[in-house]
Amino acid sequence: MQYRRLGDAGMKVSAISLGGWMNYGEGKVPADEAHRVVEKAYELGINFFDLADIYGKGEAEKQMGKMLSQFARRTLVISTKVFFPISDDINDRGLSRKHIMESIDRSLQNLGTDYVDIYFCHRPDPDTPIVETARAMHTLIEQGKVLYWGTSEWSAAQIVEAVTVCEKYGLHPPKTEQPQYSMLYRERVEQQILPATEPHGVGLVPWSPLAMGMLTGKYDDGVPADSRFGKESWAKERFFTPENVEKVRRLKPVAEGLGLTRSQLALAWLLRNSGVSSVITGATRAEQVADNAAAGDVTLSPDVIAEIETILSSS
């Protein structure tokens, strides 16, 4: 496993990380298998575990926190997020100082830890000035409850504004952005986000790097009824197109020629970019996390990257 700095911060995160979205806190993964997934991830060098308070309405934090408690806290990079409503209370949402200050205490209790390494603003909040959010994050860092803060699915302009506000008022600036980014969802990140984040030392930690499973090859011959696309039509509608099916099929010989799975190829392709600090993966079985983790040691040659680009640019 290779480790990369979180943007220009001193802390290093594993190139491949494990996320808790969809898989934890809602009973979708049997408890014993979830435990094996986390243990396998740690065994293979993954130190970055990404959560959010909205995942299972706090239950993912509780489940993952309990499993991570077996490891020395200093060896872990734990993140969680704040923004989405957790209750019907009018202030239990958004990025106001009130919601941030109250949400961190709830998340720390759920996780069973005194601090989180990264605290993400899960979405931008149009009702709260960015300076208010930045000041709240600065306070949490000064209190030691948070070590670094970041954004998720913010626009380039919003990220730059956050950095500028922090520079103006002497606040701790954001060090990471978590966007959706994959071979099949790339234009926004490459054309807008990276040109804004890299100059400011903000590292990307992309989510859905396998395009919700599309890039694994499991949909080469259609959509199995028991698959994610079979159960979640919104995910299918986003990625399952004839064009994408053909691109993923054409990636198969490229991956096999390198001794890789298509999942590993897709993850290594993201890591080709120096602006990416870590790639957040999901796993429901220990074998999946092992397959993903292996991509953390893969370096693609310029020729292979060029071949991939030819496939991805085809229509």
Q: Indicate the low-confidence ranges by residue numbers.
A: none
Task: Output mean pLDDT.
Answer: 94
Strand segment count: 10
What is the CATH superfamily label of one domain? NADP-dependent oxidoreductase domain
Question: What descriptive keywords fit this protein?
Answer:
eight-stranded parallel β-sheet; 10 strands; 315 residues; two-stranded antiparallel ribbon; alpha/beta; TIM Barrel; 13% strand
Question: Can you offer a commentary on this structure?
Answer:
By secondary structure, this protein is of the alpha/beta class. It has a domain at 3-213 and 277-284: NADP-dependent oxidoreductase domain (TIM Barrel), CATH 3.20.20. Helix content is 42%, strand content 13%. It is built from twelve helices and ten strands. The protein has helices at 31-43, 59-68, 97-111, 130-143, 156-169, 187-197, 228-231, 233-239, 242-257, 262-271, 286-293, 302-312; strands at 3-5, 12-14, 16-19, 48-50, 77-82, 116-121, 146-152, 176-178, 203-204, 279-281. The strands form two sheets. It has an eight-stranded parallel β-sheet with strand order 9-8-7-6-5-4-3-10. The longest helix is centred in the last third of the chain and has 16 residues, at 242-257. The radius of gyration is 19 Å and the shape is globular. The protein starts with a strand and ends with a helix.
Please provide a brief summary of the model.
This protein is of the alpha/beta class. It has helices at residues 31-43, 59-68, 97-111, 130-143, 156-169, 187-197, 228-231, 233-239, 242-257, 262-271, 286-293, 302-312; strands spanning 3-5, 12-14, 16-19, 48-50, 77-82, 116-121, 146-152, 176-178, 203-204, 279-281.
